[in-house]
Amino acid sequence: MSGVKNFNLTTDLPSLGGKVVCITGVKRASLSLTLAPRTAGLGSASVTALAKHNPAHIYFAGRNAKAASKLVTETKRVTPNVELTFLECDFTSLASVQAGLKGFKHSKLDILICNAGIMSQPLGTSKDGFEVHFAVNHLANALVIRTLLLRLLEAAQAPNADVRVVSLTSTGYMAHPAEGVRFDTIRSTQDTGLMGGWRRYGQSKIANIVYAAELARRHGQDGIYAVSVHPGVVNTTLVLDLGVAQKALVSIR
Fold first, then answer.
1. Is 70 labeled as catalytic in the residue annotation?
2. Which helix (DSSP H) or strand (DSSP E) does residue 64 occupy?
């Protein structure tokens, strides 16, 4: 989890001219009943920020078409020339993810940001029967990477290519079970009692780290730079919808 440095997105990010970008887990900002600043997520913020750097196209995946339409309108108000495509996906269903990705029409992909995720949710399973944190945070994002891998490899063939796969993880990975991932019970709610929600979340986040490392091991020589990053504690719905005690736990550095 090292590598922290000051980074100014406006001045330090070069032009993305000609590059195709895909971001998962995008929601539009929502209203808050508190006085805390509130955005729906890092995905929507990434769309609006990267759009200012002249990419050829931005694809973004989420499940709310109405919110996606508003995000497109808001982004184009600032950067009218950017091309945007919404990929409608329910990340609790692998079939839905596969169906949504059929809307990806480019032959190459330069930047993939796997941001979709949930945290400390009640007991539950995905539509495919997997523990819901593992399903959304790991399996669905891994399916996106696998499905778009040939496009990433295609982009890496270009002269001066700079292909990136960024998986958002968390220091919460440290709450994972002793086994790392409990594969023997992964097709269940994994009810482990007190603090179980955090163990289930940590399990999914260590899976993000391991998957990114393996992607780098297999395809680093092919020109794909794959990393997992902890974004820090940000006032998004992921954090602001937590209870008081859970927020305090998240804020511990």
1. no
2. none
DSSP sequence for 107-146 = S--SEEEE-----SPPS-B-TTSSBHHIIIIIIIHHHHHH
CA distance 60 to 27: 9
Question: pTM for the whole thing?
Answer: 0.84
Helix (H, G, I), strand (E, B) or coil at 66: helix
Catalytic residue selected from 19, 59, 205, 211: 205
Separation CA 116–CA 99 (nearest Å) = 17
Catalytic residue among 201, 211, 225, 247: 201
More confident of the two residues 250 and 215: 215
pLDDT of residue 4: 55
**What sign for the dihedral angle of Cα 174, 1, 138, 135?**
positive
Give the other-Cβ count within 10 Å of 235's Cβ.
Answer: 13
The Cα-based distances of 144 to 73, 97, 150, 190 in angstroms read 25, 7, 11, 25
Dihedral, 217, 222, 224, 227 alpha carbons, nearest 10:
10
- Quick check: 94 pLDDT over 50? yes
Alpha helices in the chain, H assignment, sequence order = 9-12, 42-51, 65-78, 94-100, 132-133, 141-156, 196-219, 237-240, 244-251
Tally of CA atoms within 13 A in the half-sphere of 143 that contains its CB: 22
pLDDT at position 2: 54
Rounded CA gap, 174 and 158, in Å?
Answer: 38
39: DSSP letter = B
Active site residue 173: no
Minimum mean pLDDT range among 75-79, 118-122, 136-140, 203-207 = 118-122
